[in-house]
Amino acid sequence: RKLYFDTHALVCLLEANGFTTQQSEVIVSALVKIMNTNLDMIYKDMVTKVQQEIALQQVMSHIGGVKKDMIILEKSEFSALRSENEKIKLELQQIKKQVMDEITKVRADNKLNLNLEKSRVKELHAQQDRALTQTDRKIDTEVADLKTMLESHKLDNIKYLAGSVFTCLTVALGFYRLWI
Fold it and tell me: What family is it from (predicted)?
């Protein structure tokens, strides 16, 4: 193993900053031990180039075996999958046709229901219009009757007023004649 720093230079630096030679050597020794321990831990997790090549060859051979298995499966099951796929396509077309038939039937039912509702609404509007027309006629008749009654009462009032005025005039003329 190589250390990538100068241990003697570190000892000299520590001594220059107030440490004794013995203290400096102990500190540098502790640092070297720590670094060696860390490197040992790192090397435990590492693999060598030879181990890596062996693992790569094992993986490549495993991939080759899987490829062979896939080719065999493809040849043997491809025709089965193709026929299954054709069956599913036919079933899907049948289901699609049934769905389209159902959609057509529902649309026809909805159109029929809509037309029935439209005719019911038109009939209801016609009934309302007839009732409104009858009500308008009744109101017009009542208004005409009230106008007639009002005119009749007016005429009666005018008659009574004229009679009262003529009576008062007659009485006044009678008094006038009596006095003159």
Answer: Belongs to the CCDC90 family.
The 10s digit of each residue's pLDDT in 103-114 is 999 999 999 999
The count of other CB atoms within 10 Å of the CB of residue 39 is: 13
Whether residue 81 is predicted with pLDDT greater than 80 in this model: the reply is no
Domain membership flag for residue 30? yes
Would the pTM count as exceeding 0.85? no
- The number of domains in the chain is 1
- For 122-133, the pLDDT digits (tens) are 999 999 999 999
- Asked whether 6 and 31 are in contact (CB, 8 A), the reply is no
User: Which two three-digit tokens encode residue 144?
Assistant: 């005409």
Alpha helix (H) residue ranges in the chain: 7-16, 21-45, 49-179
Give whole-number Cα distances, 49 to 2, 52, 148, in Å.
Answer: 19, 5, 125
Please check whether residue 47 is in contact with residue 61, taking contact to mean a CB–CB distance below 8 angstroms.
no
Contact 29, 20 (CB under 8 A): no
